[in-house]
Design goal:
Shape: rod-shaped
CATH topology of the largest domain: Beta-Lactamase
Structural class: alpha+beta
Number of helices: 8
Order of helices and strands: HEEEEEEHHHEHHEEHEEHEE
CATH architecture of the largest domain: 2-Layer Sandwich
CATH superfamily of the largest domain: PAS domain
Distance between the termini: 72 Å
CATH class of the largest domain: Alpha Beta
Largest sheet: 6 strands, mixed
Length: about 475
């Protein structure tokens, strides 16, 4: 039984707008809740102070009224305590008036016959009446003949506080939709440039690499848009370079392939063994040229001038060149050239693999353009803080006006008569750029030929 592989789970996508809305609403609710609790506690404490102040003022007012009424009516201690119905509401406020002898002289309806507090009590206190908690206040008049004891129900106070809290929470609940709508509008307004940029990019075709508009975008979005525009520039440059490279490569390959086909056709019609050998030699030259051109194209395609080699490290330039000297000497002997090497130890930052490609192209160009019995000079030395590589030849050289153009692909001098692909110096230029080095073309020794000078960055151990 074949076991079906478990599907791979892609990372879940998420919305910036929804996340911001959720976080802002949550933050608003948390802040509002904390603020409401703090406000309620502070308001309750303040209301208790106001209630106590009101209770104290009521007590003094009732004490004055009771003193005046007792004197006017000449109430004797033997009379039962008088009850007032209009002075206060017994549901919320109870009071008692006691004389100095501890006789209850006056109370309102609902007040007990027992004192709220002791005979000598003064100030605020708390008492339980019929299972309910009451806040009390006691005070004597100036002559200390009468004492007022007033009680206010805690339930009454709690009821007022709860009504305030109810109104507060009701107002907040009514405001929540308004706040949610406002937050949604603000988030949408802030994200509008981002959505507009995303929509603009989504409408692009693969070949549309114009810059994304940054006008009106917020400061926080500018780095992203600039990075996208920079990426578009790189992609556009790479696309143009590869398109040009493909067209030029097809054009250059057409010539050697046509020569191969012509030589094959002529070879079939050879009339003698000598002609056959001559056509086979020409065919061999065409194949070599095609092989060299394909190799150069593959090398150039692998190079990225905007990326430094990953293995860039410190190396001795003279030792690295010395490893290839035997091959260069054999090549010089075959071409009947004089190869002079002057290699002084100097350290610099190199990628060994790409440097060998660079050196092989420079020396190969110098030997191919140098006439028989000419001289090719290869040297390296320290030049200030840099390492200097020089390759000089005694060939025809390059006119000053052409020295920048020869670094372009497939550009060759028309008057040299030497076969080539026009890619060697382009490869060299790319490798030089990848090393962070610089290259210059000058006149060769004694004003003839060509001198190529490359300055490499010094290694960490190089002398200052």
């Amino acid at each position: 039984m074949t076991k079906t592989p478990a599907p791979s789970h892609a990372p879940a996508s998420w919305s910036v707008r929804r996340a911001m809305l959720a976080m802002l609403l949550l933050l608003t609710l948390v802040v509002w809740s904390i603020s409401s609790v703090v406000l309620y506690v502070e308001t309750r404490q303040e209301s208790q102070r106001l209630f106590d102040q009101s209770l104290e003022e009521t007590a003094h007012l009732l004490l004055v009224l009771a003193d005046h009424e007792i004197e006017e009516l000449a109430v004797t201690p033997s009379h039962p305590p008088m009850e007032g119905h209009d002075v206060a509401d017994g549901r919320y406020l109870l009071f008692q008036v006691w004389d100095a002898n501890g006789v209850l002289r006056y109370k309102n309806k609902g007040a007990p016959d027992q004192p709220f507090a002791g005979a000598g009590a003064a100030g605020f206190g708390n008492v339980t009446i019929a299972g309910d908690n009451w806040r009390t206040y006691s005070a004597w008049n100036a002559s200390r003949r009468l004492q007022i004891q007033v009680g206010e129900s805690d339930a009454h106070r709690q009821d007022i506080s709860e009504r305030f809290a109810y109104k507060l929470y009701l107002f907040a609940l009514l405001m929540l939709p308004v706040m949610a709508t406002g937050i949604w509008w603000i988030v949408s307004r802030v994200l509008r440039p981002l959505m507009a940029s995303a929509e603009e990019v989504s409408r692009r075709t693969p070949n549309d690499l114009r810059k994304v508009k940054t006008d009106g975008a917020p400061v926080e979005l500018q780095p992203l848009l600039q990075a996208i525009n920079h990426l578009f520039e790189q992609v556009s440059s790479t696309f143009e370079r590869e398109t040009r490279f493909t067209a030029d490569a097809a054009h250059e390959l057409r010539t050697p392939l046509a020569a191969i086909k012509t030589n094959l056709q002529v070879l079939h019609g050879a009339r003698s063994e000598e002609e056959r050998r001559e056509f086979i030699a020409a065919l061999d030259v065409s194949v070599d040229r095609s092989t060299r051109l394909v190799g150069q194209l593959m090398t150039l395609a692998r190079l990225d001038p905007q990326q430094r080699p990953a293995a860039l490290g410190e190396a001795d330039l003279a030792a690295t060149i010395g490893q290839q000297m035997p091959e260069f000497r054999r090549q010089a002997e075959q071409l009947q050239l004089h190869l002079v090497a002057d290699l002084a130890p100097v350290r610099c930052l190199l990628d060994p693999d790409s440097f060998r490609v660079l050196l092989r192209n420079l020396v190969d160009n110098a030997m191919r353009y140098t006439p028989r019995h000419g001289t090719v000079r290869l040297s390296c030395r320290a030049d200030g803080r840099h390492a200097l590589l020089c390759v000089a030849d005694s060939g025809p050289g390059i006119p000053a006006g052409m020295r920048e153009r020869v670094f372009d692909r497939f550009v060759r001098l028309s008057n040299t008569g030497t076969p080539g692909s026009g890619l060697g110096l382009s490869i060299v230029k790319n490798i030089v750029a990848a090393h962070g080095a610089s290259i210059a073309l000058n006149d060769g020794p004694d004003g003839c030929g060509l001198l190529v000078e490359i300055r490499f960055a010094p290694g960490p151990g190089a002398a200052g």
